Fold:
Amino acid sequence: MPAALTRPGLCRVEQIMGTAITLDLADDLPPATLGELADQVFAWMREVDARFSTYKTDSEVCRFDRGEVLLSEASADLRFVLEACADLWGVTDGFFDAYATGRLDPSGFVKGWAAQVASDRLLAAGAANHCVNAGGDVRVRGLSPSGEPWRIGIRHPWDAMSTCLVLTGTDLAVATSGVYERGRHVLDPRRGAPASGLRSVTVVGTDLGVADAYATAALAMGAPGLGWLDRLDDGHTHSVVTDDGRQYYSAAIPLTD
Amino acid sequence: MRRAFLAITGLAASTTALVVFKGSPSATPVAQNLPTAQPVNPSGPGTDPSAAPDAPGTDPEAGAPTPSTSAGAPVSPKPGKTTARPSGTKATTKPPSAPRTTKAPQSTTRRVTGNGFDNEYGYVQVQIVVSGTRIIEAVALSLPSGGESDIHSGDVSNRYDGKGGEVVQKQNANLNTVSGATETSNSYKQSLRSAIEQAF
Structure:
């Protein structure tokens, strides 16, 4: 038996929400159990995509936006997301704006939140050691398959094959918003124009939905977003790369040695 | 099959358009060649060949105007210009044969455009720059929300000047996962693959 080559757990990638979702289960559970847990995670992510995609005209978000679904008729998930987005709008001085494009688009929160919920469910189901990566938004818990804390690289904003910082931890939500993959898709809601000044913003916390929204908000703020992140005193840390290639990060960010 | 044929002919048309675009100006200005060479600079191997021909190519031209404007402008603008221009035209009439020969190997750098792919998020098209048998650059010509990678790819060398704050570093260590901006995964891969298939 090639025992040395095997690792406990399971790793699976699926293309959902227009991006790659990677699930790494590090618990040494029976294969059938692991497969079932993975099925549930990806079924949940597909459910979120069907409900919240702004690209699918029949999604609940689009129907709600067109007024075909009333708030009172909306699903519990949609109502939760709308409420969270409203809260985040306040906390971010209006820079996280689900209506920045003129129509409802909570994507800046939904992807991170969906991965966070998946991670919470895995923990509740007894899989305490796992990593969920939803298109670059990462939630890790426990230990990696090697039995050590998870190591999370932050992608180098000019070189897809490199990372510019490596974080480590056993309970981290790491969300990155950047302009290098999909262009300047984040709007400054106050000017209605694409945000500029920052090339990549990574926010580290314990709730991936909030971290995702913070990263999006700071990117929308541009250079002042760095100061805004610095002034956050709610346990979040950050790493920012500016358009002119400089990197700034919190002293408390969980770096590897 | 028909779609594939159409896509290929469309591609052929666009690549010939590119070739025509690239080919026609090559006879006249030296600078026209630079845009194709410039993106190579940040990656390294291109810096030497492009920098070397540039120096002899631009030095006579750039060297002449500077005296003409600095020395010639205040006192004698006309003689300054007349002396500068002939030297400039002489410089361009003679050296072009030399730059052309030195530039010729650079034209082994070619751009190949992949098929465009439509997905539910929009249109994605990738272009690669091939030098010999190496891909030295991949640029998204079209991304759903307005790609900027081709603008930024040329900026790398300019940005990495190391002045002031902490310049973004590269770190590679054994990683479990990577956090980054959301990719438009499938279409990009498909378009990139088609560009590679055409290039090799």
Remarks:
- Chain A has one domain: 7-249.
- Chain A touches chain B through 55 residues (CB under 8 Å).
- The mean pLDDT of chain A is 90.
